[in-house]
Specification:
Elements: E1 8-10, E2 27-34, E3 40-46, E4 49-56, E5 62-68, E6 73-78, E7 85-89, E8 93-99, E9 108-110, H1 113-133, H2 140-164, H3 185-198, H4 203-238, E10 251-253, E11 259-261, E12 269-275, H5 280-296, E13 301-307, H6 312-321, E14 328-330, H7 339-343, E15 351-355, E16 361-364, H8 368-378
Parallel strand pairs: 1-7, 2-8, 12-13, 13-14
Antiparallel strand pairs: 2-5, 3-4, 3-6, 6-7, 8-9, 10-11, 12-15, 15-16
Helix pairs in contact: 1-2, 3-4
Amino acid sequence: MKQIIFILFIFTNISCGNSEQINNKNSYQLEFIFESDNYVYLYELIKNNPVKIDSSKSKSGIHNFNISLEAVDIFLVGSEPQKSILFLGIPNASNQFLFKNGDYNELVVSGDSNNILLQNHFKHRNGIISEIQNIVSNNEEEKIILRNEILNRYQKYLKQFINENSESPSLIMLLGEIQSPMDFKNELLLIKEVITNKFKNQKYLVEINRAIENANQQEKFIEQQKTRSEQEKEQLKNLGITVGSKAPDISIQNANGKIIKLSSLLGNVVLLDFWASWCRPCRIENPNVVRLYNKYKNQNFTVYSVSFDQQKEKWLEAIEQDQLTWPNHVSELTGWKSTPGKKYGITSIPKTFLIDKSGIIIDYDLRGDALEKKLSEIL
């Protein structure tokens, strides 16, 4: 797979290049060395689209651009937009790019510390991209796990990078790399401060404010979930369903009309799973349940799935699509009027209860890594 590399450069104080050429207090000087006879174009990024503002052709391959600026802004330089280097021009600064053979990997940048900082950052990011592309495994689930581990490590790196360089205008370029705004709320506020203080074009405030609002919405949702969870705990307690209590029996039909009792599975560790074909969070979690079932099914572990579907065809189709191969699938096809749902106080799905071999509830609402950890402890 061809590796795509984005290189961004930030310029603050003059440190190299031809400083004698700077004759405008608010100008930015760029010396772009490109070993090609082609024209080199300077683009300004306007509404996320590159707009050509200058050009240069030089037999020596040395192209000089002088940009008048009142504040930091975003530009590109190269033979065409798709093959250009994205950078930030900063008033009263200069830099030199040695873009040898048009190879980003061999790009040499001379300039202030911000420039070097970002070059190192994007080298690190390119390394992460390569690491993901080079994952070797015949197991797709293992590939996903390894990929997520790499991405989580990269998000930790981003958080550290932002905090250690909190005054650098380069931070604006990291905005699109943040996966979870809620986890980066403090860092987003740092980026907003940089944009407010150093960028003339306040359009970037729209993006950062949107990200901060997403973080606020995520926090609000988490708080709502916590409140709902507390309410559900109280409801379950009133129904006598608590960790350490005996799981109420369920006795309803499968798709063929055969009654399957939950109590018939005594002697197995059972994941009682309330779900539905139309429930997206349920379907997202299903691959994890399938993986754990296949991993532990020979160690007396099984799943008892109670569907809140109303259409039999949709229910069976989802079972086949998600490869839910355990035999214990039951449903009254009555949606939220489900008798087992009322018995277990179900107000939202997915909802799971982990039941030990003697029919005692061990825990509930375990998903993902938490479920796997608990199963590894008891099996």
